[in-house]
Amino acid sequence: MRRMAVAAALGIGGALMAAVVALAQPASAQTYELVGTVGTHPVGAAITVAGGRITEAHYFYDSHLQDIVLVGSVVGRTVTLMESEGGVFTLTLQGNGGVGGDGSSFATSTSLTGTWTEGAQTLPVKLAMDWVLDGAPDGHRYADVTQASDAAFEAMARRFLTAALAGDKAKAALVVSYPLAVNGNPSLTVRTRAALIADWARIFTPAMLAQLRTAVPHEMFVHEGQAMVAGGLVWFDAKGASAINEP
């Protein structure tokens, strides 16, 4: 699951993982972030649970990044989530068989599997727990990063990723927070737009670009005033891309 990659990317290992996976003692409300597929389509989802009830939920397709609101319920291990347009998720909580991971509740589950149905169409669904946040969404996910709206911040991240993947050096250089730390072997500090353009081939290798194609600049993980995509491949602060961790 990506939360393992997050801990590795942050370089804080056990301390973060202990906080993230200490699910057996949930707060009054917890928001579970998930990644997976509906049929062959990559998706993300967020489900807030309080007192054993689903209080908020939505999902989005990676290709569109538009939240689709869901209304849900939990009965035992069965989770039902309904779209206003008629789509219905029928899912089962799954555990990992370990201690505290029996899948009897969200707090002891590692994934949800089942189907999405609308009319005569039925697709398989697989969603893995990505990370867990205490509390319910407060309307400003990136408050620790920027005063800009969530939509504006995500749009900035998309501009950088789109430009990088297109090889548009000038546009990418406009969405970087200098000095840009490029962590690799060897590491590099890029201090100006001109330097980024000069070192472009060194930074944006085929391996880097392949990983960037998996980046989802929506509902990004936030840590210490920065947000990340692709398991920590790129981190963003309020001004733009601030660090790149080479694959």
Largest sheet: 8 strands, antiparallel, barrel
Please give the share of residues in helix: 10-25%
- SS-derived structural category: alpha+beta
Silhouette: elongated
Proportion of beta-strand residues? 35-45%
Please provide a written account of the structure.
This protein is of the alpha+beta class and 247 residues long. It has helices spanning 2-10, 13-21, 150-166, 169-173, 193-198, 200-203, 206-212; strands at 29-38, 41-50, 53-61, 68-75, 78-83, 88-94, 111-118, 121-134, 176-183, 188-190, 221-223, 226-229, 234-237, 240-245. The strands form 2 sheets. An 8-stranded antiparallel barrel has the order 1-2-3-4-5-6-7-8. Strands 10-9-14-13-12-11 form a 6-stranded mixed beta sheet, sandwiched between helices. The protein starts with a helix and ends with a strand.
Features:
2 domains; 247 residues; 6-stranded mixed β-sheet; 14 strands; Lipocalin; 8-stranded antiparallel barrel; alpha+beta; elongated; Nuclear Transport Factor 2, Chain: A; 7 helices
Structure in a nutshell:
The chain has 247 residues and is α+β, with helices and mostly antiparallel strands. The chain has 7 helices and 14 strands. The relative contact order is 0.14.
Secondary-structure blueprint of this entry?
Elements: H1 2-10, H2 13-21, E1 29-38, E2 41-50, E3 53-61, E4 68-75, E5 78-83, E6 88-94, E7 111-118, E8 121-134, H3 150-166, H4 169-173, E9 176-183, E10 188-190, H5 193-198, H6 200-203, H7 206-212, E11 221-223, E12 226-229, E13 234-237, E14 240-245
Parallel strand pairs: 9-14
Antiparallel strand pairs: 1-2, 1-8, 2-3, 3-4, 4-5, 5-6, 6-7, 7-8, 9-10, 11-12, 12-13, 13-14
